[in-house]
Each structure stands twice: as structure tokens, then as C-alpha cells.
Write the C-alpha cells for this entry.
Amino acid sequence: MTSDATGLMATGTPPRRAKERRQPVRDPARRRRWRVFRFVFLIAAVLIAGLVWVVWFSSVLVIRKVEVTGVSGILVNRVLDAADVPIGLQMARLDTVQVRSGIAALPWVRASAVVRAWPRGVVLVVEPRVAIALLEGSRAAVSSDGAVFVPPEPLEPGLPTVRGDGVGLVTAMRVLETIPVDLRSRVALVSATTRDDAELVLDSGIVIRWGSVERPLLKARVLAALMKTKARVYDVAAPELPTTIGQPIAPAD
């Protein structure tokens, strides 16, 4: 008879196996690490919740001041009115896209940016359009990027006038931008109806048939040589075959 059978007869119950009698061994170091992890996690959760409350809901980081750069004088107030930044709003809740949209509605603004100046400021960066010509027959001006707008302030005298619309206006403005500065300063009128028929009228009354916007430097060199001959019209639209027409109009007595 085996020992297991003997034990069964003596006690009336089957003997426990060795693995059933084995008690689980607890690791104190592992328990300590788990307690530290839970403590750190709890502290981190509290800190994050506190940070969210401070940034998004408290009055600690709210907008107190709005500044405008890029313009001065009365234009600052116009930008502030258009931006409509709510004083007292939490900095993080400011809708910068909406603010920029308000500024972009000003036709004389070329570009803008909204910058959060933590902890309590907002800076509105504005790039105004620069008028380089006046649109004939209106109060509007034309900027260097070809936009037509009504200037918010009086313009400096001496700007050339532009005549044209659609493709003609684009061509006239591109020609005005690409001609040499010394020639541009003498231009009184730029006109065009297509991409290839731009014409300049100087303040002296001389007419220059410029043609397309291509090869401005070559045309300028040819024109400089051509103007050594007095004429009323200089045609450099085809710079390889320049021509002159008529004699300059004598000033009236």
C-alpha cells in the first residue's frame, strides 16, 4: 500500500498536493514600485488638471493688452476695431483665425498675423498695401501686388496713373514694376488692353510703346540709346527693331 493510500485511510481526506500547499510569495520591492507609480500618476493628473484650469478657465492668463505693429496713427484704431479682440478672454481660447479674418476685411491690408504675447498680451502684425499708382477715373489706388483698393490716408503726390482693367491692368502694373527706377520716376501714365500693348506716357508728354512685360532691361537699354534722337513716340516693343515717330511737341508759349 502506498503512502498516499495510508494517508487517505488515516485522515479520511486526500492529501494536498505540494503546489496546492505552496503560498504565493509577495515581492515587497514590487509593491513599493507600484505604490510609487500610483503616487506619481496621481500627482501628474492633478498637475495637468490644474494647468488646464489655469490656462483655459481661470483669470490668470487672460488678454489684458492688444498692440498693433506695421501701421500708426488712426490706422491702429481701425485695425483694433476690425480685429475685435475680446479683452478678458483666456489667451488659449482666442480664435486667431477669426481675428485675422476681421483684419483681412480691411481692403488696404495686404497680410496680417496674430501673435500671443504671453502671459497677457496679443500683438497684431499688419502689412499694409503700398500704392504705386492711381487708377484712372477713380479714388482707388493699385498696389505692388496688383490689388485695387481705396487708400485709408492721402497718398503722396507724383504717383503715376494706370489705365486698364482685367488683363490690361495686370500688364500695366507688371510693366510699371519691372521698368528701371529712373524711368519709372518720369512716368505719368501706364496703359494696356492686352498682354502685349503696354504704353507709357512720360511727364514730358513723350509716348513709349513698351509692349509686353518681357525683357525689360534690354528694352530700357535700347530706349536709352533711342532717346538720343528726339521724337514724340519711341517704340521698343520689339527691341531688335526699335522705331521713333514724329517730333516732340513743343511747349505752348
In short: The longest strand covers residues 109-117. Confidence is low (pLDDT under 50) at residues 5-10.
